[in-house]
Amino acid sequence: MGLNAIEVNGRLFELTDSGFLLRREEWNRELAGKLAAKEGISLEDGHWELIGFIRDYYEKYNHLPNARLFVQAVRKVLGEGKGNSRYLHHLFPDGPVKQACKFGGLSKPPGCL
Predict the structure, then answer these.
(1) E strand or H helix at 13, and its extent?
(2) Partners of 16 in the β-ladder
(3) What is the CATH number of the domain that holds 18?
(4) Per-residue pLDDT of the chain (113 residues; tens, 9 = 90+)
(5) Which residues are catalytic?
């Protein structure tokens, strides 16, 4: 697995070859914004809500959900309007779980290409 880095406010953060943060404890909002910008996304309230959701989910269950479980969990907590694939893909077009994890400083989800 190769490594690369991203600079945020003069500090380098190591990333995996897939662009995920190497050390979760180093995550911050500025880093999230920079990672998202690299993929053409400007983080807004809806993004932050789901990034916070996936981070809380990981802290509570100590694992990352698959796509189906993620949609179900979001629906249960945030309601039908946000817990559906269309809404989630609108915010995270390259895969809601993948991008929410990446921007949230979490590891690459299992089964993610």
Answers:
(1) strand 11-16
(2) 3
(3) 1.10.10.370
(4) 446 999 999 999 999 999 999 999 999 999 999 999 999 999 999 999 999 999 999 999 999 999 999 999 999 999 999 999 999 999 999 999 999 999 999 999 877 65
(5) 112
